[in-house]
C-alpha cells in the first residue's frame, strides 16, 4: 500500500487537474482504499468497458465528471489526454508537465499503446508528457538537443535510449557512462539499454529523430 500511494502522495496535492482513463479508476480506487476521498479525480473518461460498476458509481456520487468517449481508433489514454489539454486551455491553467501513473505493466500490447500515445501527444499538447510505473519512467524526446538534470536524488541506477517508431541516424550524448557520438540507434543494430550516469549530474542528448528516454526512479 505504501509503495502504491507514494507517487500519489507526491504528485496529486500539486496537480492542477487529476484524471483517470477508464480502468485506471479501478486502480486508483483500490490503492487508496480507506482514503479515497483524498484522491478524487476531476474526471474519468473512456468507453467505460473496464471500469468496475461500483467504482464508477462511487466516483459519480462524489461528483467526479464522467466523460464517455466511444472512438475505438484511439486508446482511452490518448482520448483522456485530448480532454485534459482542452480543460487546461479552457481554464487557463499554468501547467509545466503532464504526469501519467501507470501504463507500463501487464500486457505488452498495452505497454506499446502507452508508448504510441506519447507520439500522439506531440500533436495534442505542447506540454511534456511523462509516464511512470513503479521504478520506470519514459519520455519521448523530440529531434534536437536536450539537457536532463539527473542529480535530484530520485534517479535509480539505469537509463536507456530506445529508437521506437523509427531509426535514429545520429545520436550524441554526454553525461552517460557509455556515451554515443553521432551513432545510429536502430532495432537490429544498436539500442542503448542498461546504461547509467557518469556522476556529472547532467545528461545531454542530441537526436535527429524522436527517441524514447527511459530511466529508473526511486519512489
Describe the structure.
- This protein has about 220 residues and is an alpha+beta fold.
- Helices cover about 25% and strands about 30% of the residues.
- It has 5 helices and 13 strands.
- It has a 6-stranded mixed β-sheet with strand order 4-5-6-13-8-11. Strands 7-12-9-10 form a 4-stranded antiparallel β-sheet, with no helix packed on it. A 3-stranded parallel β-sheet has the order 1-2-3, sandwiched between helices.
- Helix 2 links the parallel strand 1 (about 20) and strand 2 (about 45).
- Helix 4 runs parallel beside helix 5.
- The radius of gyration is 18 Å and the shape is globular.
- It starts with a helix and ends with a strand.
How is this fold's topology laid out?
Layout: H1 2-11, E1 19-21, H2 24-31, E2 43-46, H3 53-61, E3 65-68, H4 76-91, E4 98-101, H5 108-124, E5 129-133, E6 136-141, E7 144-149, E8 155-162, E9 168-174, E10 183-185, E11 192-195, E12 202-207, E13 211-217
Helix pairs in contact: 4-5
Amino acid at each position: 500500500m505504501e509503495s502504491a500511494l507514494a507517487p500519489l502522495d507526491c504528485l496529486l496535492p500539486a496537480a492542477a487537474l487529476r484524471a483517470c482513463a477508464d480502468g485506471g479508476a479501478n486502480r486508483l480506487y483500490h490503492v487508496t482504499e480507506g482514503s479515497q476521498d483524498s484522491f478524487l479525480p476531476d474526471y474519468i473518461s473512456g468507453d467505460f468497458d473496464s471500469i468496475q460498476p461500483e467504482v464508477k458509481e462511487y466516483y459519480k456520487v462524489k461528483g467526479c465528471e464522467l466523460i464517455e468517449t466511444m472512438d475505438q481508433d484511439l486508446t482511452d489514454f490518448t482520448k483522456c489526454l485530448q480532454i485534459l489539454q482542452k480543460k487546461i486551455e479552457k481554464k487557463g491553467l499554468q501547467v509545466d508537465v503532464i504526469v501519467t501513473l501507470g501504463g507500463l505493466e501487464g500486457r505488452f500490447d498495452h505497454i506499446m499503446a502507452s508508448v504510441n500515445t506519447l507520439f500522439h501527444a506531440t500533436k495534442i499538447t505542447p506540454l511534456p508528457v511523462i509516464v511512470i510505473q513503479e521504478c520506470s519512467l519514459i519520455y519521448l524526446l523530440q529531434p534536437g538537443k536536450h539537457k536532463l538534470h539527473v542529480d535530484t536524488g530520485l534517479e535509480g541506477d539505469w537509463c536507456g535510449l530506445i529508437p521506437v517508431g523509427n531509426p535514429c541516424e545520429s545520436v550524441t550524448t554526454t553525461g552517460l557512462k557509455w556515451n554515443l557520438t553521432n551513432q545510429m540507434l536502430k532495432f537490429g543494430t544498436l539500442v542503448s539499454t542498461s546504461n547509467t550516469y557518469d556522476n556529472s549530474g547532467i545528461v545531454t542528448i542530441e537526436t535527429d529523430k524522436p527517441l524514447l528516454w527511459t530511466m529508473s526512479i526511486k519512489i
